[in-house]
Amino acid sequence: MSQLLVRPAGPLYGEVVAYGAKNAVLKQMAACLVAAGRHELHNVPDISDVSTMADLLRALGCTVILTNHVAVIEVPEQLVTAAPAHLFEAMRASIVVLGPLLARAGRAEMSMPGGDDFGSRPINFHTDGLRAMGADVSHVGSQIVATSPHGRLRASRFVLEYPSHTATDNLLMAAVLADGRTVIDNAAREPEVEDLGRQLQAMGAQIEGLGTSRLAIEGVERLSPATHTVIPDRVVAATYLAAALITGGDVTVSDARADHMENLLRKFTDMGATIDTTSGIRLRGPQTVAPVDVATLPYPGVATDYKPLITTVLSVGSGVSVVTENLFDGRFKYVDELVKMGAVIETDGHHAVVHGVSQLHGTHVDGSDIRAVAALTLAGMVATGETLIDGAHHVDRGYDDFVGRLSALGARVERVR
Length: 417
Known about the structure:
By secondary structure, the chain is of the alpha/beta class. About 30% of the residues lie in helices and about 25% in strands.
């Protein structure tokens, strides 16, 4: 297992690229299953989750070639309806093959999905929606077996109990081939959901309401392959901007979309950052980070993936801040590691009270998921001495050349064993 070794290097400066969004491209790769033929996705990040999804699609009968941030996916007329368990267990996003596979092939068999461990994330929103569309879904041990006994899935109307990003993606992909008009109320509004919808529309899908909480999908009998460019990753962009904020640097993320990050940029401004969105997003950090209160909410609120970055920046700011997690339980594990480094943070249920300190101290810490490793790397940049972070493989799942891009901005980060 590899580790990250981080040493302080002063303010970061320069320009960096975020590349395509992990939370978009994985779903868009799965979406190719709904149409036989040759698909192309551009701006695909070189991350391990993309490689895992490619392996999963290959197991389902597809041919996948990944080169130079382009994915070429050949989808056969006849799909395989099951794949090895380890491919599903490697990442949470594997659940999104369920809807398109069921819609195209009438059957899907998969293991329960894995991924980052930060609390319970049930799949009942996915399975309840598919049942409403006429599918039979059963659990056999750790296996999910879904069939469409009536042939094509049937259109339905359902209200999501919670605007789940992944459930919205899954049901949207199932509905594009269903018989009739499907309506999804309380749908997720994330830019990545809208981007998936744009890809499906390019394939011939009839979708209304993208970017809103009500999606209406008129099912068609057949779709055609398409070429699509993935939107940039707003969480990766936020990480590099937060690195400038915490070090008092000046960093531009050239491909970042400010319209996808409005509430986060507002919070960064409240912390004292100067932000320019003329071309990409440029952030100049303050001499001292000001305290703010932050609560995570479904989009367009502050995303839960931003929270470890925000908490870390506030840990070396002035005053007292309160950070509230409204989406997932168990997502304060990284706080214990920040405390090891000298941060003063008290957690109580869904809340963390952050007392800013003047200095963190390097030590040996454990990164339990993608964003935790990223956040602890930021902490190591402003800590005295050396910070050794376990779990470096997690960032490979979501960041294209994490060490290389930070190093190009002046950070002292290296991978060690």
